Amino acid sequence: MSVIGKFNNINVTGSNIQGFLENADGIADDSSDDSEDDFINPQKSLSGFLKTVVTGINYGKELRKKESFNVDYFYNLSENNGVSDTKRVFFSNTNNFNYSSKNKYLNISDNHNLNFNYENKANKTSSLRIKGKFFSDKINSDLIREGLFFDTMDELVTTNTNTSSNSNLKKYGNLNVDFYRKLPKKGRSYSTSFKAVINNYTKNNNQNTFIERNLNKTNPSTTNFEILRDEDLSSADILVKVKYTEPLGGNHYFNTEASSEILTGTENTNQNRKTIKTTTVEDAIEYYYKYSENSFKTKFSHSYNKSVLNISTGIELQTLHRGFGEVDKIKFIREKFYLNPSLFFQYKPKRGQKFRFTYRKYIKAPRANQANPFYNDINPYAINTGNPDLKNEKTNSISATANVYDFNSSFNFNGKIQYSNSTDAIIRNVTIDDEYIRTISYQNSGEKIRFNALLNITKKINSLGVRLSLKNKFSNNAANSIVNYELNNVVSKDYLTSLILQNNSKRKVDLKAGATYVVNNTSFSIENNLDRKFTTQKYFGMVDFDFSKRLNVNTQFDYLVYTDNKFLIQQEIPIWNAAISYALTPKNNIIKLVLIDLLDKNIDVYRRSTLNYFEETNLQSLGRYVVLSYTFKINSGKKKINKSLKT
Question: What is the mean pLDDT of residues 155-175?
């Protein structure tokens, strides 16, 4: 049993804060729906200034041998505020424009999280596992954005000031039950699993946008939008799966698997908008939208299993039924039947070596918002609407992995290749008018190709007393979009290479140095002169030295360099951290002084490329600060030995 309490204002998140990251940097605006198709969308960091309160309790009990129960509850309160500057380049076949904005944001998250896990393997012929997760997360977001629109001559044309105050409450529940049982005949078994996911998302949005247009002409005009939009989104996903295995003799097995997944959801939206020009016009949007997706699968497969070789081939029969539309009005029905082949091959010639190859075909139905025909224009500059005529996306996926570890030479090799090709690809259809208003919808067009490769090598060089780690990643992604009714093929290539050197013997001193180089090349068929290249370089060195058994000194220096051929500003950010710790007594009473960002370079950089614009955002971050800590160990740190484990 453990009880945890924590408070800090030094940008340390604590736990269970994934949802908070979505609104943590003040730029989660009209681009949020683009994230699935963005090629460059790195994990956002918590910039700005963050305060976190975490408290929780964990309880675990071994009910008997191989039967255990664990439960934990956490409460998180987080407050993040700051400022950021964003630059974007938009392009289409008719009019390109540049956009910049200054953003000031405040986000407060109030989160409750409960997890539990029960596992029973006490019976030699069966096992049961029950796992659950429930949380509620309330996020209040305030944002002030001042946006500037420039034409291709870099002349200011339009400005807008957006002030928004949003309150979002998300409730989530997830329950998983897995049961496995061996039958009397050797090799015969069956398993069942049940999964239920329930979501409820309530959004209350209050937004005011003031727009000044035609600033470069003699007839400027102003428009003010006052919008209130309330949304209640609910969904339930139920999955039941049964698998039966029958031995055929000679390490051959026949497997039958049947599953039924039912997804249902509703969207209840009420919006009121007031448009103020020379006169005031009021309008409203109200609809109650319902959707369902039923997927029934039956899979037959043959497998050959030995200690060194596993091969499985199968065919899956799938019926996918979708129904959606406004309640008590027109309803859309879609039903398709698919045959999905699969192949699994794994070879383990000896200890420390494993090679694997997989192939599968899977079907992806349009998301609920992609098929919803109603307009979402709470942001006057990014209007979203779905397409009820979308077809299912079909993907063939291949992956190959190799893992080799030589215990004698301490050589470790990990390699992975992934390739996927999607037909009837669901892509975005973007139109941009003369007032820079984007309307985003979806359609099926062509194919989407993704290729990723990963190579990691670790090797001890005993003659030099060092360990070398080399990491390489490459990805090539190609997809279509429609921009102002013209096909735009986007190809993004990303390279990452990283080298780390460190000493083998770390009894007194730990030395580490390395470099990472990342480059992105993105090309757009709709514009020949807008191909983009940006790089990130990171160089670092670290020294950790034990002057004595009680005194330790650690220091690390990072040097980051950002370049971008579209924004022409090279940013160089040096980061220096250090720490000194001293133990007042041999095994406890530790005083530690930590110095963060000694050079006070309080900035973070976030960049990405999308299908019709690319951007760079500079975010203010917590700069230099110092932490003084004291740690006291209640016991000596020696673990009691369980006598029953002695041999």
Answer: 94
